[in-house]
Design a protein that fits this description.
Elements (H helix, E strand, L loop, with lengths): L2 H5 L8 H12 L3 H7 L1 E5 L4 H10 L3 E4 L5 H14 L5 E4 L17 H7 L2 H17 L2 E4 L24 H16 L6 E5 L14 E2 L4 H18 L3 E4 L2 E2 L1 H7 L15 H11 L5 E4 L5 H4 L4 H10 L5 E2 L4 H14 L4 H17 L12 H6 L4 H12 L3 E5 L8 H4 L1 E10 L11 H7 L3 E4 L13 E8 L12 H4 L4 H5 L8 E5 L14 E4 L5 H11 L23
Parallel strand pairs: 1-2, 1-10, 2-3, 3-4, 5-7, 6-8, 7-9, 12-13, 12-14, 14-15, 15-16
Antiparallel strand pairs: 11-16
Helix pairs in contact: 2-15, 4-5, 7-8, 8-9, 13-14
Length: about 550
């Protein structure tokens, strides 16, 4: 069956006009331009020389990490669109939380929405993200994450997932896809073939899906099939191995059992395409990640990504080198002409599905675009979801609600906002919010020895969401103690009321099982901090249902 016949089938479901556009566009591209179409390159910061370099390469798409300057973003992306061989596709990770647009509506991330556990809230949040994304020209999101939050030490799944329960993940991921794709943004389910049972980070190492075939079919297999039934347009093939499946086809696979999915014909073509019947676009995960670079050299792995069944290569540290390697692989026959055509036409098919037939179709009018951001109605409804998310996991001493009369003097141990994609992140506004309530707030210092004579309450405020290159997120007592060895070993809750507030990672009870109180809020956005204070003061009710086992399987953590 030809690629053009496949484009008429779900999830593309293109009509004659769209298929004809794909055919004519493909036929009109040179080999170099066809290779360019299967690359999505990254644009960060304001390096105009780097942007000019990317424009000259004429990629099929770009991923932009946006600044707060709308006019600048519009200019940069318009210039990129004018330079490419076919209409540009602009991508983003529409995950919410600090991935929300800085000039847009603050929207909860996936784990926060899983805590709210209202599919309409998830659908509406995705709709808000999609409408604001379209205003910037973004038409492809690398979301939702459908990984399973099984290994609590994972620093890369955590707050980015919809939790640990497959039923909950399924219903919220479906709502996420519906909210995006009904509003003109293609969704991507990730990370194929499934992450969350290995507590390591594929940005640093090739991770392993350790499930048996039966276990995988009952969990990830079920999830991916359901997303395909919903019509999700793309899948992200990750740097994750699935040895049980490979060994079912190759009993003596040896090292091949641990080949990353991104360069595995068995996982991309045999399992994903042939057995699960996925007809959409397959995009690799970011190719600069350690999970791929630990497997092989770039000059080898980049062509293998396409040859093994992925249609798009995501990012490149050296795009001139990588495009040349892919082009040479086509000329040598390592990548067949049929495979190249299939990949390029799926990329063009995605653009056609999104209505990007002309370059003028990429961006809406400027004034229309500006008006799409932070609409009062959207801000109001998103705030109602935020207000329902703070989860009181534990309060064995009935500390909450707080009272200025009994807890006036607060010692705040501020761990700061940790965000590896932001060189400078804003400070927590929590101290000022508490002062506005009438509390006397002292920020902890290495010379302070907290006693009941000086303080009425100790609060640990931690803000580290699940993101890349950190191995594990944990309660770093030494860092919190300012490097003081003895303070790092000292615990306050035996003689002072103490609570941990996590604006991110939900598993701190593993490192502090006896802390009397824990609040999980899943995001460090300012509106979330305000919602937590409202709950602590008793003006709003805490959520009492956690989307994960915040006790990390520890019996003593319940006491």
């Amino acid at each position: 069956m030809s690629i053009y016949e496949n484009l008429r089938k779900p999830p593309f479901s293109l009509d004659d006009r769209a298929v004809d556009w794909v055919r004519k566009t493909y036929d009109g591209l040179t080999l170099q331009e066809r290779v360019g179409q299967i690359f999505v390159l990254i644009m960060m910061g304001r390096n105009e020389e780097e942007f000019a370099r990317i424009r000259a390469l004429k990629p099929g798409g770009v991923t932009r990490f946006f600044t707060p300057d709308f006019d600048y973003e519009r200019r940069v992306l318009t210039e990129m669109n004018e330079a490419v061989a076919a209409p540009l596709i602009i991508t983003a990770d529409l995950e919410g939380s600090r991935y929300s647009f800085s000039f847009g509506t603050p929207v909860l991330g996936q784990l926060g929405l899983a805590a709210v556990d209202d599919v309409e809230a998830t659908r509406k949040s995705a709709e808000i993200l999609a409408t604001e994304a379209r205003a910037l020209g973004v038409t492809w999101s690398f979301t939702p994450v459908i990984d399973i939050n099984a290994a609590f030490r994972s620093a890369i799944v955590g707050t980015r997932s919809y939790g640990s329960d497959v039923d909950r993940i399924e219903r919220h991921a479906l709502a996420h896809i519906q909210g995006l794709q009904a509003n003109g943004v293609a969704a991507t389910v990730k990370h194929w073939p499934g992450e969350g049972f290995d507590d390591r980070d594929q940005h640093l190492v090739t991770t392993i899906n350790p499930l048996s075939l039966d276990e995988w079919q009952a969990s990830f297999g079920r999830l991916y099939r359901r997303m395909f039934d919903e019509g999700v347009l793309s899948v992200m093939s990750a740097h994750i191995a699935f040895p049980a499946y490979v060994r079912s086809k190759m009993p003596d696979a040896g090292l091949e059992a641990f080949r990353p999915a991104s360069v595995s014909p068995l996982l991309n073509q045999t399992l994903l395409r042939d057995e699960l019947g996925f007809n959409g676009l397959i995009v690799s995960d970011a190719t600069s990640m350690g999970g791929l670079s630990a497997w092989g050299q770039d000059r080898i792995t980049k062509p293998e990504i396409i040859a093994s069944g992925c249609d798009v290569i995501l990012f490149s540290d050296d795009p001139e080198r990588d495009m040349a390697a892919v082009k040479e692989a086509v000329i040598s026959g390592q990548i067949s002409q049929t495979r190249l055509q299939d990949a390029v036409c799926r990329m063009l098919g995605l653009k056609a599905k999104l209505g990007l037939f002309e370059k003028s179709d990429v961006f809406p009018p400027v004034e229309t675009a500006k008006a799409a951001f932070a609409k009062p109605d959207n801000v109001e409804v998103a705030q109602t979801y935020i207000s329902r998310s703070p989860t009181l996991v534990k309060d064995v001493q009935s500390l909450f609600p707080l009272s200025v009369e009994t807890h006036k003097r607060i010692l705040l141990v501020d761990g700061g906002i940790v965000h590896p994609l932001m060189p400078e992140t804003p400070p927590l506004i929590l101290p000022e919010l508490l002062r506005q309530e009438g509390f006397e707030v002292t920020i902890d210092r290495p010379d302070i020895k907290p006693t009941g004579g000086d303080y009425d309450l100790v609060l640990y405020a931690l803000a580290e969401e699940s993101l890349l290159i950190r191995g594990h997120i944990f309660l770093d007592w030494r860092k919190l103690a300012g490097g003081n060895l003895y303070r790092a070993m000292h615990r306050t809750w035996t003689h002072l009321p103490t609570a941990i507030i996590s604006f991110g990672h939900p598993y701190y009870l593993y490192d502090a099982p006896r802390v009397p109180a824990l609040i999980n809020a899943y995001s460090s956005m300012d509106p979330v901090q305000r919602a937590v204070v409202d709950c602590m003061m008793g003006r709003a009710a805490f959520n009492r249902t956690s989307p994960v086992d915040a006790f990390c399987g520890l019996e003593d953590a319940h006491y």
